[in-house]
Amino acid sequence: MNIRFVGASICALALIPSCAPSVDDSGELVEDIVDPSVVTDLDRVFAAAAAESGVPAPLLAAIGHVETRWQMVAGEVEHEGAPPLSGVMGLRPDLVERGAVRAGVSPDEVMLDPEANIRAAALLLADEAASQGVSGGDLAAWAPVLAAWSGIDDPDAVAQYVQGDVYATLAAGVEERAESGELIASIPPHPELAPLAGVTVPKAATADYPSSVWRPSPNYNSRGGARVSHVVIHTCEGNYAGCWGWLRNPSAGASAHYVVNSTGSEITQLVREANRAWHVSASYACSRNGNTDCGKNGVSVNTFSVGIEHAGFASQSTWATGLIEASTKLTCNITKDHGIPRDRYHIVGHGQLQPWNRTDPGRNWPWTRYLDRVRAHCGDGGGGGGGGGGTTGPTIIVDSNNANNNAAVARIELTGTWTSASSTPGFYGSGYWWGATAETSAPATFWFYLPSAQTRTIDAWWTSGSNRSKSATFVAYNAAGAERGRATKDQTANGGKWVTLGTWSFSAGWNKVVLSRWQAPGKVVIADAVRVR
């Protein structure tokens, strides 16, 4: 199988054939540019596993997408009693052991090799199907196998997993691509499964966030009159149904106020914001949070915070735009209701407050973009709604990763050879592109759509480094292709923040900002993000 790993730098896995050092875009020696969480060309692996096991390939692919969005994950324990999951198929430790025996490979291979992980899952699913008398290509007939495979005890959560997640994925179809554009995997739509997709959700609205589904958990207690002052961002280390199903299990001893699914299409509320959910097993220490709110030192974080879980893993590389949008709208609502400052010291990560055994939401959580969107939804600036400069409409962010863009109004287009990277800190979103300077017209183009003629202020974001160009040129064009203005910036400095390029008049339609690299060879230019406000 021609499986490929793409993305950032890592060289720790035995399955990677070569770990020869290379030079990154900053000129420093690094390990081979490989990110084991991003694997491409999985369609053939699903097909091969289906041929060997008899489990339909679309079903295997749908399970993998529901569990991990087709990323290789190495799950940590987010909730005591819930097992860590691994690989494209999100296998529990017991399934890793059994699957290794079934596939004739080692447990390490099942955890670290995507092909072995998928094969092991397929063979175990085949065993479950045989025990239930299920076989063949009728995907609807596999529902009881999916229910058993979920490992979920809560019957409502099982229905969510089978119908609302797996069958909904099959019915709608899905495709995922790496930031470089390479296909990870795809599922064609199966409209015949539409009647099986989706579940009946509780009708009662929550008192706190009407857009969510109320699925109450018994795992909470009183805040004792404490005011809510922080929002804590978590990852479930697993899928959506398994997450909320576990957190409302009385034996779990854990909960959160909200759980957001992997696409942002649904949010579950488990605990009222007025009550104290059990989502952080740590007392507050201001030294871990920029020496802010030191008066809370020694107080349980749960006492003064609202916890939001997100389907997914701290080890994954990318987050769906829909999930970020849904979560930031929710966080905006919480901050408005409780008067919480919308900054990095009051909207915080679990791992930041409990670093000895948690890393969530992980190194690839797009913090800058996340806070930008929270502020935008709340109308106080940032990327996506709000004001500033020459704004006559919502702010638009064009990220270097199209998976992070709203395709209706933003996209990036690359011409020629550009290399994706995330090795230099301070990038916007989930990484950036770098291109070597040369006398060539092979730019990075940041497209943005305006419904009417407007005057807008354009900002750019990059990572700075000594090998960057001191004369990176950005050129703005309207929808007719007429130049509206240009700015030359020194990318050796001012990295990790928005830098204003200029305020210009644009026309209705698709306008653009072009980052040129036409100059003497020997440097690089960085295409990270553009903001239109």
Keywords:
533 residues; alpha+beta; Lysozyme; Lysozyme-like; Jelly Rolls; 3 domains; 6-stranded mixed beta sheet; 5-stranded antiparallel beta sheet; 11 helices; 26 strands
Layout of SSEs?
Layout lengths: L3 E2 L16 E2 L5 E2 L8 E2 L2 H11 L3 H12 L24 H11 L3 H6 L1 H19 L10 H8 L4 H18 L1 E4 L5 E5 L25 E2 L5 E3 L7 E4 L6 H8 L10 E3 L6 E3 L5 E3 L27 E6 L10 H18 L8 E3 H4 L13 H11 L18 E4 L10 E5 L4 E3 L10 E5 L7 E7 L3 E8 L10 E6 L5 E7 L9 E8 L2 E8 L7 E4 L1 E4 L1
Parallel strand pairs: 7-11, 9-13, 9-14, 10-13
Antiparallel strand pairs: 1-4, 2-3, 5-6, 8-12, 10-11, 15-26, 16-19, 17-18, 18-25, 19-24, 20-23, 20-26, 21-22, 21-24
Helix pairs in contact: 1-2, 1-5, 2-7, 3-5, 5-6, 6-7, 7-8, 9-11
Number of H/I helices: 11
Radius of gyration: 24 Å
Rounded mean pLDDT is: 88
Strand order of the biggest β-sheet: 7-11-10-13-9-14
Distance between the termini: 46 Å
CATH topology of the largest domain: Lysozyme
The total domain count is: 3
Hey, roughly how much beta strand do the residues contain? 15-25%
Portion of residues within helices: 10-25%
Low-confidence segments: 8-34, 382-391
Name of the level-1 CATH class of the largest domain: Mainly Alpha
So, CATH architecture of the largest domain?
Orthogonal Bundle
* Global geometry: globular
- Tally of strands: 26
Structural class label: alpha+beta
Could you describe the largest sheet, including whether it forms a barrel?
A: 6 strands, mixed
